[in-house]
Structures are given as C-alpha cells and as structure tokens.
C-alpha cells in the first residue's frame, strides 16, 4: 500500500518499541521485520532516527556487540521506562482505533 | 575535554579529521550521502558545532555498518534525506540558524517600532 508513511509516522515509534520488547535486536533486523509486516516503505534510516530518539529519551538499553564484518553493532533492549512507554502506546492505540472503528460503523 | 580544548575547539578539529578519514574509507554512494547529510545538518549546529559531533558519529557508524553489509546508501536512507536529517536533530521543529536569525530580526523590529511609538 502506497502513501502509508504519513499515517504510520505517529505510530512507528510504538511499533519499534514493541519489536524491541520481545527480544534484544538491532536496526537492520527491526527494519526487516517491519518490511515483512507489509510496511515496505520503511527504510533503515527511518528506524535509525527512531532508535536515536529512544536512546536519547532513556527508553532502551544499548549494548555494542562485534559483528561478523564491519564495525560493532548496536543492540537494543527495553528498560523499565521503555516498557511503561510501550504500555502507554498500546493504551493510546486502543483508544484511537476503537474511536475510529466506531466512526466507521456509523456512529456519530 | 580539557579547558584548552573547550576554548580552542582543538578536540573538534581532531574529531573532525577522524570523521573525514572514516568517510573517505566508505564506498562512493555512502560518501556522497555523508556529504549531503553534513550539508543538511550544519545549519542545526550550535556555535562551535560540538552538539553535532555525537549525531555525526552515529550516522557515520550507520553508513559503515550498512556498507559492510553491502547495502546501498539509497536502500538504507530512502528518498527523504532532509526528513532523515531533521528527525536526527530532533523533529521537524528543530531550531536552525535561520530560525534564530528570524527571531532576532523580529525582536529588533518590534523594539524599533516600540521606540517609535508605532
């Protein structure tokens, strides 16, 4: 689906938080996961800027691990603040999606 | 950082040289992207550019990592380089030199007008 980017923008941070919550992972793997889900427009650069923001806001724990070739890779895991943030994200998402569904189903 | 480095910015020069050496080792498309990112980010720097250094270090790391994986710069960064850069420095509303100049100008004009009793 084209032109999803604008709509996705506000929720992408939550999606990345959720992906990190299940296991410690790194930028490229997160991007691939999103692409597999059908968000083919999401580039690694976009995920990178989100990861920078999560780190700056103290929501993740970062570990550098050597990779096969090239420089060491940054791995991300959620800390307690991050888990709280994720819970808040899902609460907001529930609210938003239930309202919009209601609207679609003919409520006013 | 020593006092001397704070005053002269000599550590920045050294760090900058390090960045350039790393950038020179990148494949052509990644290096081109690096140069464009620099051009986009510099208006967001503070007076010395110190605030940008950690950001640039991270971007260079991303480019090195993806180059080692054999992925193209375009594949990694997508089409929206300005968007990527403004997200890096903290969202669309990131203050740049231009914003600061604009504010200053507005302030000065308002003051002048106030003085004229306009």
Automatic annotation (TrEMBL), chain A:
InterPro entries: Metal_resp_DNA-bind_regulator, Tscrpt_reg_PadR_N, WH-like_DNA-bd_sf, WH_DNA-bd_sf. The keyword Translocase does not apply. The keyword Cytoplasm does not apply. Residues 16-87 form the Transcription regulator PadR N-terminal domain. Keywords: Plasmid. This is Transcriptional regulator, PadR family. It comes from Streptomyces clavuligerus.
UniProtKB/TrEMBL annotation, chain B:
Pfam families: DUF1048 (PF06304). SUPFAM superfamilies: BH3980-like. InterPro entries: UCP029876 (IPR008316). Keywords: Plasmid. It comes from the Bacteria. This is DUF1048 domain-containing protein. It comes from Streptomyces clavuligerus.
């Amino acid at each position: 689906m084209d032109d999803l980017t604008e709509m996705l923008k506000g929720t992408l941070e939550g999606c990345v938080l959720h992906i990190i919550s299940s296991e410690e992972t790194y930028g490229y793997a997160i991007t691939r996961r999103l692409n597999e889900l059908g968000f083919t427009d999401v580039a690694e650069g976009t995920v990178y800027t989100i990861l920078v923001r999560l780190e700056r806001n103290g929501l993740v724990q970062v570990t550098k691990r050597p990779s096969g070739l090239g420089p060491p890779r940054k791995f991300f895991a959620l800390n307690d603040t991050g888990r709280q943030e994720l819970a808040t994200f899902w609460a907001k998402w529930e609210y938003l999606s239930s309202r919009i569904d209601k609207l679609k189903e003919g409520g006013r | 950082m020593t006092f001397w480095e704070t005053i002269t910015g000599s550590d920045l020069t050294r760090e900058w040289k390090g960045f350039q050496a790393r950038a020179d080792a990148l494949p052509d498309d990644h290096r081109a992207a690096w140069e464009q990112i620099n051009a986009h980010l510099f208006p967001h720097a503070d007076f010395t550019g110190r605030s940008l250094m950690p950001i640039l270090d991270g971007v260079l790391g991303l480019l090195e990592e993806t180059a080692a994986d054999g992925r193209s710069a375009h594949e990694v960064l997508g089409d929206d380089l300005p968007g990527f850069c403004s997200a890096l420095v903290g969202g669309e509303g990131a203050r740049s030199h231009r914003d600061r100049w604009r504010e200053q100008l507005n302030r000065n004009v308002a003051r002048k007008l106030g003085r004229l009793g306009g």
